[in-house]
Write a structure and sequence with these properties.
With about 70 residues, the chain is mostly helical. It is built from three helices and no strands. It is elongated, with a radius of gyration of 14 Å. The model has no long low-confidence stretch (mean pLDDT about 90).
Length: about 70
């Protein structure tokens, strides 16, 4: 579902939304593994999930700040 949402965002918003769309897909895909690891379940590559989720959140925050700055420029 996140992949479909990302694809729709890229088609409607243009290639500028490709990086945030990929970050959103990665966040959704690896987020459940990270939450399972925090809950105490045995999860393979829990460290990788943490790195990917944190990186995705940082990318989305930076993209939101860039978007807000571009709106403010008008």
């Amino acid at each position: 579902m996140a992949a479909v949402l990302g694809l729709i965002a890229v088609v409607l918003g243009g290639p500028e939304l490709a990086v945030p769309a990929i970050a959103l897909v990665a966040l959704v895909y690896w987020g459940h593994a990270l939450f399972s690891a925090f809950a105490g379940d045995e999860v393979q590559h829990a460290e990788l999930a943490l790195v990917i989720v944190v990186n995705s959140v940082v990318v989305l925050v930076v993209q939101a700040l860039v978007f807000a700055a571009s709106i403010e420029a008008f």
